[in-house]
Design goal:
Elements (H helix, E strand, L loop, with lengths): L2 H14 L7 H8 L3 H13 L3 E4 L2 E4 L1 H5 L13 E2 H12 L3 E7 L2 E8 L21 H9 L2 H10 L13 H10 L6 E4 L6 E10 L2 E10 L6 H17 L3 E2 L3
Keywords: Activator, DNA-binding, Glycerol metabolism, Transcription, Transcription regulation
Function: May be an activator protein for the gylABX operon.
Protein name: Glycerol operon regulatory protein
């Protein structure tokens, strides 16, 4: 028997037991695997399309669904999606990479690439409801028109999450108004203590999107060089005309 195949199958079975998906730690526990092993297998299964990651949980991907689909109904190859590139960018940059969009009035985190030695920020407070407190959310809010931004903040009021968080709506709006077009949005310990983040806007058709990275506070000197590296990687991919963001 090939052990790695067996372990991957145990993970797929664990994913199948959760209709709404489950996070890596839970899947590792249910499959009886060490977390680093589970991370590597989950990354491979995601890269191959058998799984997809949404809002911090893993679900079956198109490749897994194709296993039971009729031949005529199977998915055909399409443009390179953002998820196909995040793993490579994480490895090149040496930091977790996030992608989010603003869709139907809400923040949607559609993909995250991390690893045991470069873990993503834990979603301890809903990313959707706390856009004011993290870089990727602020970057998306900055791209909205005034009416859409006010509507969002009516539904998700500004509230400080840490002692470094923006304190009120007026302060947040002033910060967003002073951002120069295309510049990175920097957030220092506003969402999670000990973590600093930077986000950049992404133009992909009519989609309002952003990408971000995070680094530990003691590596803050890496933040700006890393986000500029991410900007270059994204720009290169956009120029290839084979890029799509799936919502």
């Amino acid at each position: 028997m090939i052990g790695s195949v067996q372990r991957a199958l145990r993970l797929l079975e664990a994913v199948g037991a959760h209709r709404d998906g489950a996070p890596a730690k839970q899947l590792a526990r249910e499959a009886g695997l060490p977390l680093p092993t589970a991370y590597h297998l989950l990354r491979t299964l995601t890269h191959e399309g058998y799984l997809r990651r949404e809002n911090g949980v893993f679900l079956f991907g198109a490749a897994a669904e194709n296993l039971t689909a009729a031949p005529a109904a199977r998915s055909r190859p399409g443009p390179v999606s953002v998820a196909d590139s995040l793993d490579r960018w994480r490895d090149v940059i040496g930091a977790p990479v996030y992608c989010a969009v603003y869709c139907d009035g809400e923040i949607e985190l559609i993909a995250v690439a991390d690893a045991p030695d470069t873990p993503a920020v834990e979603e301890w407070a809903s990313f959707r409801e706390t856009a004011h407190a993290h870089a990727i959310g602020q970057c998306l809010l900055a791209q909205l028109d005034e009416r859409a931004r006010e509507d969002h903040l009516d539904r998700h009021p500004v509230r400080p999450l840490t002692r470094y968080s923006v304190r009120d709506r007026a302060t947040l709006l002033e910060r967003l108004r002073t951002l120069r077009r295309g510049e990175p949005v920097i957030e220092r310990q506003e969402y999670a203590l000990g973590t600093v983040c930077a986000a950049i806007p992404v133009t992909a058709g009519a989609t309002i999107a952003a990408m971000a990275i995070s680094v530990p506070l003691d590596r803050e000197d890496r933040l700006l060089p890393a986000v500029e590296q991410l900007r270059g990687e994204v720009a290169s991919l956009l120029r290839s005309f084979v890029f799509s963001i799936s919502i």
